[in-house]
Fold these 4 entries.
Entry 1:
Amino acid sequence: MLGMVLAPLGRAQGPSSNVHFFAGGLNNPRGLKFGPDGNLYVAEGGAGGQTSTVGQCEQVPVPIGPYTGGYTGRISKIDKFGNRTTVADKLPSSQTAPTQGSLVSSVGDVAFIGNTLYAILAGAGCSHGLAGTSNGVIKVIRTERGP
């Protein structure tokens, strides 16, 4: 029988020398796409929240639920210099029970059709702590500041 030698764990290493930090200030980033304007758009899950709908509707069962929610999801735009601006915010964001790590659901990804920005929203609804909200595809209406 061959013996196995386990090497001690080495120090954690940083990224390779060809990786450089580009943009920060993101809260639980998910999908990203370049827009027709050349900027990078990022779906952000946010931080969930503490709103509970226990007793108001059917809940996701333990151990995953009950969920709690808030309106911390957003979509950010990052310019060619790495500057982040908010395109849409206060989107539904929910999280699993703390025993499951408080995993967040919210804006999962973004896409463009022509110049129109769309996003997929998950983690909404009464069962996720956010009565009066729904999962689905959202369309971001163009405003004076973007997208």
Note: The chain has a mean pLDDT of 91.
Entry 2:
Amino acid sequence: MLLSLDSGVSALEQFQQSLNVIANNIANVNTVGFKSASMSFADTLSQTLGTNATSSTQIGTGVMTAGITNNFTAGSITSTGVQTDMAINGNGFFLVTDASGNPYVTQDGEFTLDSNSNLVTSAGQYVQGYSDAGLSTVGNIKIDNTGAPNGDTSPMQSYSIGSDGKISVLLADGTSFTRGQILLQNIANPEQLIKVGGNLYTGLAAASPAATVPAPVAPRSSGMGSLVTGSLEMSNVDLAAQLSSLITTQSAYQANSKVITTSDNILQTLVNLVR
């Protein structure tokens, strides 16, 4: 079989994958906290036709995927006016857990309060941080009147979340206190994180030095960014760049389909020689 046919087929397969990546990026142009991906290529093994004293005569056999990497540059921060919406201005990820306690990280800060006053994601995962007024215990964040000084049981009147993640609660009797603090997870190698859908990532150990996941820390400390409440970080997809990549990938796909057509014509000519 002609090597050009193998090369053309491999190219069509890889450019189809590239189109899939680009299409997914464009589909998530308005997804909160979404990080775009890009695909890189590498050549496959070459067939050696011969060697001499100074060089080898080789012909390539096509292309393969070298990797698909996520781009973790920050997206734009957009004001929503919703008190529980949060964006990270700088480094860090929100740490959340599911009902079984499995940890995930995300930069989607579209949170809400559930029926038990837990701060949760849109899919119900629990936001993690200091869950007590003494800022000593890491767990599910609750926003209520628990932990008020002197055992005050007045109902909560309002609350606010500072750029350092501290949650201040104002009670009906005018007493205010710090209820807890949202913490951020530092990820040294975010490119090693694994997407699991719902704007969540797992694989925290693989993305951490020496496979040891560091403890979450307060915003505005240890190199972490600050929280911007009432705002969300939008997708970092550059639509113009993606459309440009779409055009070049389509052109490359068409060119390689022409290689296959030409190879097929040559094979047809060879077959017709025996008639």
Note: DSSP finds two helices and 20 strands in the chain.
Entry 3:
Amino acid sequence: MASLVGLCSGAYRMSKRMVANFCTDVLRVPLALGEVCHVEQTVATALDLPVQEARTYIQGQDANVDETPWRQQQRRAWLWVVVTQGVSVFCIRASRGAKVLWELLGEEYGGVLTSDRAKAYNGQPLQSRQICWAHLRRDFQAMIDRGGAGAAVGEILLEQADVLFGWWHWVRDGTWAPATFQGYMRWLRGAFQQELEAGARCACPQTAATCQELLKVEPALWTFARVPGLDPTNNAAERALRHPVQWRKTSYGTDSLAGSHFVENLLTVVATCRQQDRNVLDYLTRCCQALYTGAPPPSLLPQTMS
């Protein structure tokens, strides 16, 4: 029953009262609200070892990273996510600063980091960083929407971004060979830089500031063109945050560190199992059984799926 309670709360975003009613109506097991909290903590404990293993695993992988506001103990906090190939990890922290990023990825992180342009990510070397082009498209559209001197710059940059996505889709689906793609991208990169330089001199202060900022991180715009399989967007992390964002809107966050512990572990398991096409309830059940019997819990890592 513990695994089912964890599933209802963590995967289907049911409130504690809804979970208690479900247990009474469907399972014929009456639970008080406090007992629901106790069961959730049991489930969180059962997941500690595989989640810790997952946190170690992501430190050696290329990663998409993002964060979103959260509420913890009635205070503003941040829910972070790191998405890698086959494993996603969540954590709740009071800060959205670089200290949390390096806690998650490790001080010696050597993978490629894909993210937006938040300051927390500036410590990553430009040659191993990919800035999200989906965010850039929104910036270029904002230039157009503001009108004035920056609109023409935004139109050209947006057109070039759309060309980039078209070519990238062609190489991704096999229409273009990687070498062909890289050849065309060299031309596009030069044209894009020229337009950024022109935009940095335009009369619109906001457009000029955006172009100047992009020129400073220009190498990080094109990492995907030389690293096979790397996506030019941070969409994987944004998709991973949709479920917890909806959960936050109905739960208003967590009232305790214990509640945050449950959220972190359940989100990690739910997202990772779905990445690997594993049954979430089955995985939770096996972890709870391992806790009760003292056996090792099943791993979340892709190469140990069983």
Note: Residues 151-172 form the longest helix (22 residues).
Entry 4:
Amino acid sequence: MTPDTPPTSNDVPITDELVDSLVEEAERGYDVDKLRGRGRPRLGKGPSQIVPVRLDPQLRRALEERAADEHTTQSDVIRRALRTFLDVR
């Protein structure tokens, strides 16, 4: 690995030793039951659907700023706004 290699999501540097240990772990195999349940949490009772929407630059900037101010995602801000506007809980 090079000194310019970015760290992992946990700020662990990616080194040759880390890669070797991950390869060894993968070659031993994984317990599939332990892996289940990972990923994004459900937002409701059923699977979520993606709904594309177009935003003008001013609205997009306001959305980005609100999400940053609240330390959340733009999707979360949109979902909360729609729930409030449509009176859905």
Note: The first helix runs from residue 16 to 28.
